[in-house]
Write a structure and sequence with these properties.
Helix content is 51%, strand content 13%. With 61 residues, the protein is an alpha+beta fold. The chain has one domain (5-55). Strands 1-2 form a two-stranded antiparallel ribbon. The longest helix is centred in the C-terminal third of the chain and has 21 residues, at 39-59.
């Protein structure tokens, strides 16, 4: 089965654990790639992306 795996975040360089349960979830959903960013950096990236989308939506009004 799956084993916890240490990965280095491509944004901040910190090491994070890709747990066996996360790996099983990725496999169940058909995701082929492992995460490249830690949760903190993923959340920051999502927030930045959402803010950009909100600005673009407001400018279309």
């Amino acid at each position: 089965m799956y084993q916890d795996k240490s990965i280095v975040c491509k944004d901040c360089g910190s090491e994070f654990t890709f747990t066996s349960s996360e790996q099983a979830f990725y496999a169940e959903k058909g995701f082929d790639n492992e995460p490249k960013r830690c949760k903190t950096c993923r959340d920051a990236r999502k927030k930045q992306s959402n803010q950009q989308t909100n600005r673009e939506n407001r400018s279309l009004r």
